[in-house]
Specification:
The complex is a heterodimer of chains A (350) and B (464). Chain A has 350 residues and is of the alpha+beta class. Among the domains of chain A are: 72 residues, Winged helix-like DNA-binding domain superfamily/Winged helix DNA-binding domain (Arc Repressor Mutant, subunit A); 72 residues, SH3 type barrels; 90 residues, Ferrous iron transport protein A (FeoA) (SH3 type barrels). Chain A is built from twelve helices and 14 strands. Chain B has one domain. Chain B has a two-stranded antiparallel ribbon with strand order 2-3. The radius of gyration of chain B is 27 Å and the shape is globular. The chains are: A alpha+beta (350), B mainly alpha (464). At the A-B interface, α10 and β13 of A face α2, α3, α6 and β1 of B.
Chain lengths: 350, 464
């Protein structure tokens, strides 16, 4: 009898401890999750305001309610709370960010874009998945986290979509570009930005292999579709898709015809590196460069693999094994004449 | 013009401003110009003969990575390394054990003469010292043979070819080909294998390699495997082939371990560590003649002594714990026996027994004391037993303790799959700095071990 009472008492005590323990108890966790939910709501609202400000449009309670999928009552409540915190002001008629609100909003934007860059360039996550992951992470990163990440990534200027990353001071390099649909036919254009929403359209663009930095040319512009070429392949894009690609003046021509991927090189052939694909960024790009896969370097197949992957390539006197995925990122041309003394020497021998 | 010291802030701002003007491809241009400069210097000062060496390398590469011969060559080399280790370590191990025994008995005699209380003598010499001497005599000779052999392979340039051969398997399981290298390192010591995962650049694949490294049996676990292989497998063969059969059995266990590594990697890559395979670049260096002095240095000083020291640091307290457990009696039964009885049902379920499980609990700090602890509890003596001959161990296990083939098989599997030792767990913590991954790294193998041994035991009991 006394035994069962003490067991009950002990269990109650344990439960009470589990609930009330500072920092890790259920109560503390609940408080923290409430605070986190508040932070998310605030930050999502701030993002909405700054996006509209960049588009030089005035945000309204209606636009905010639509963007955050909130009821009107809760939207008003949110705006009032943000006003009391000194983040927005509505006295000018429209809803605008205060300097304090702007600073916080830029932090969120910076967190989002840096995290996307990290996931895509460093962790190797596919482009179409980084946006959603960053939507969560942007609410969890502190300012110190961001500075470390920024330094680790080598202070990138733009995220994988081409969006400029704000600096610590909050400076944002403006995007100077027009939609692909408005670009003159035949003129080479450089992709500078790809809109990451809506998801369906973004996936189509990524699947076509177009990335910020790609040089393309419009071959055909009919009311039904746009046909663009990146030098090696042609892509058909619906206008609604092409409108989500922003381009600017190209710094160079599209890849000449005859360039292939290193993965297509067969044993016994020799070629020289033309360039690394623009989709190869961050760590994997540095790695390939360090191994000597720089433009004009001679490559040949050193070792074929019975299982297809990886294959060994001979470059600059060493053998390097690459999986197909990496070899796809290196563009080569079989053309022999070159100004590089290395391959020039090879030609005279031959 | 007056020289003036610029305000650091202005300099930083200016640097930041300039950085934004040089464009995204400045790294490409820097590397290209570095290579161009290097090329110019090399052209001026280095004369290149015909690339005969490379032709030779390429021929060897074609053989060791060929579809027909690649895998057999790899397994053959692995088996050879194990065989040399098994055969070569046997005799020095016994000599060391005898030496330590002489030291111990002399010391005990001295202590008794001086009138030191029996429990102090027992604790120090039969507990702590005997734990140490077991670890040194069981571990030192195999390590002093295995590590140099391994370093020779490393120095030759063979290991990257292994990674090249096996990459397709790792790619299919969503892991990195260089995991083959860290696994090879794990044969020596899993803690060293976990540290070696630094060669894998991508954080996701590195974590997979860290969490699955434990499925490669380390040097501390080889003695158990070798003992079981010798007692249960080799005994079925004529003496002339016994050592080959033992080496073959150990290779078999290793292959099962590789299978579980791939399986666990595949599971991790599809559940908690989703993502694409990242950049895989592997340099296949030219073959080199190994430099013997350097091999001896790196393998003996860097690896053997390092691993041994760590083992000693953990074995000494474990020896003390064993002595205490075996010498404190409650109602006439030692603590060790009581705990073993408590674990007996669980042990039976997975085809082992309570004593073996208790030995594994005590051996969390260092796997190499599993066997001596087991023998000690079986024999009911208050101290770890001395190294006895394999024949005597066989009599004890099979005839007195009722071990069957199932016990041997499941003990091999359990030894292969169970949780990493304390050192490895600490290393996982140091490498990941995450309590979550450390917990998964410790418990996932244990779950595998219980699941697999339980399945084997159940099937065995149904069908045999």
């Amino acid at each position: 009898m006394t035994d069962s009472i003490s067991v009950w008492l002990l269990s109650l005590l344990l439960l009470a401890l589990a609930a009330a323990w500072p920092n890790v108890g259920l109560w503390a966790q609940w408080k923290r999750s409430l605070a986190q939910r508040d932070r998310r709501l605030f930050e999502d609202a701030l993002k909405h305001f700054i996006t509209w400000e960049h588009r030089s449009q005035a945000a309204t309670p209606e636009s905010l309610a639509g963007a955050l999928a909130l009821s009107q009552r809760r939207t008003l409540d949110l705006i009032v709370r943000m006003e009391t915190r000194g983040l927005v002001r509505s006295d000018t008629g429209a809803l605008t960010l205060t300097p304090e609100g702007e600073r916080w909003a830029l932090h969120v934007v910076r967190a989002h874009r840096l995290w996307e860059t990290y996931l895509s360039d460093d962790a190797g996550m596919p482009m179409e998945r980084v946006h959603r992951a960053a939507e969560i992470a942007e609410h969890q990163l502190s300012a110190e986290n961001l500075d470390q990440l920024d330094a680790h990534l080598g202070h990138p200027e733009s995220d994988p979509h081409g969006d400029p990353i704000p600096t610590v001071e909050g400076a944002v390099k403006p995007l100077d570009a027009v939609a692909l649909t408005e670009w003159p036919q035949g003129e080479p254009a450089r992709v500078v930005h790809i809109e990451d929403e809506p998801d369906v359209i973004f996936r189509q663009i990524v699947a076509a292999g177009l990335r910020p930095g790609s040089t393309i040319r419009i071959l055909e512009n009919s009311p039904q579709r746009l046909v663009v070429s990146d030098g090696s392949a042609e892509h058909r894009l619906a206008h609604v898709v092409a409108a989500n690609i922003q381009v600017a003046e190209a710094q160079r021509a599209t890849r000449p015809t005859g360039t292939r991927r290193l993965s297509e090189l067969r044993a016994g052939e020799a070629a020289e590196v033309f360039e690394l694909d623009v989709s190869c960024r961050g760590f994997s790009r540095r790695r390939l460069l360090d191994l000597g896969m720089t433009p004009q370097a001679r490559v040949e197949v050193a070792l074929d693999n019975p299982f297809g992957d990886p294959r060994g390539f001979r470059v600059r006197g060493t053998t390097i094994a690459l999986r197909k995925q990496q070899a796809d990122k290196v563009w080569i041309k079989t053309q022999k004449v070159s100004h590089d003394p290395e391959s020039a020497a090879e030609v005279t021998h031959a | 013009m007056t020289a003036k010291v610029a305000d650091p802030k202005t300099v930083l701002l200016r640097a930041d401003h300039l950085r934004r003007q040089i464009g995204d491809d400045f790294r490409d241009r820097i590397v290209s110009s570095l290579y161009a400069d290097a090329r110019r210097i090399a052209d001026r000062s280095v004369r290149v003969g015909a690339e005969q060496k490379w032709d030779w390398d390429q021929k060897v590469d074609r053989i060791v990575t060929s579809p027909v011969l690649g895998l057999p060559i790899m397994l053959g080399i692995l088996a050879l390394v194990f065989w040399i280790t098994i055969v070569g370590a046997n005799y020095p191990s016994q000599m060391l054990a005898e030496f330590f025994f002489v030291v111990e008995s002399t010391a005990v005699a001295l202590f008794t003469d001086w009138g030191v209380p029996a429990w102090i003598t027992g604790f120090i010499w039969n507990g702590v010292f005997r734990g140490l001497s077991w670890v040194v005599s069981v571990m030192l000779p195999p390590m002093a043979i295995f590590f140099p052999l391994f370093t020779i392979l490393e120095d030759l340039g063979y290991l990257p070819r292994v990674a090249f051969n096996l990459d397709w398997l790792f790619r299919k399981s969503g892991a990195h080909g260089k995991q083959a290298l860290t696994m090879a390192m794990g044969f020596g010591c899993n803690a060293a294998g976990v540290t070696a995962t630094r060669v894998i650049d991508s954080p996701r694949e590195r974590l997979i390699a860290i969490l699955t490294n434990n499925f490669v049996p380390c040097n501390g676990r080889f003695p158990t495997l070798i003992m079981l292989a010798t007692i249960f497998v080799a005994a079925a063969f004529p003496p002339a082939f016994a050592s080959f059969a033992a080496a073959g059995a150990v290779v078999g266990v290793v292959l099962i371990g590789v299978g579980f590594t791939l399986l666990a990697s595949w599971l991790l890559a599809r559940t908690v560590l989703q993502g694409e395979a990242s950049a895989f670049t592997l340099e296949l260096p030219p073959y080199r003649r190994p430099s013997i002095l350097r091999i001896l240095y790196t393998s003996l000083i860097d690896r053997t002594i390092f691993v041994l020291w760590r083992a000693i640091m953990t074995a000494a307290p474990a020896g003390a714990v064993i002595w205490i457990l075996a010498n404190i009696n409650i109602a006439g039964v030692s603590l060790a026996q009581r705990s073993a009885d408590f674990l007996d049902l669980l042990g039976f379920a997975i085809g082992l027994d309570g004593v073996i499980l208790l030995a594994y609990v005590i051996a969390i700090p260092a796997n190499e004391i599993v066997v001596p602890t087991m023998l000690m509890i079986y024999m009911g003596v208050g101290m770890m037993s001395d190294v006895t001959s394999y024949g005597e161990i066989r009599t004890l296990l099979v005839e007195q303790q009722g071990w069957t083939m199932l016990t041997a098989i499941n003990l091999m599997l359990f030894s292969l799959l169970h949780n990493p030792c304390a050192t490895t767990i600490i290393t996982i913590w140091k490498e990941t700095r995450s309590a979550r991954w450390t917990t998964i790294g410790a418990l996932m193998p244990l779950a595998f071990a219980f699941a697999v041994t339980f399945a084997v035991a159940t099937l065995w009991r149904i069908f045999a």
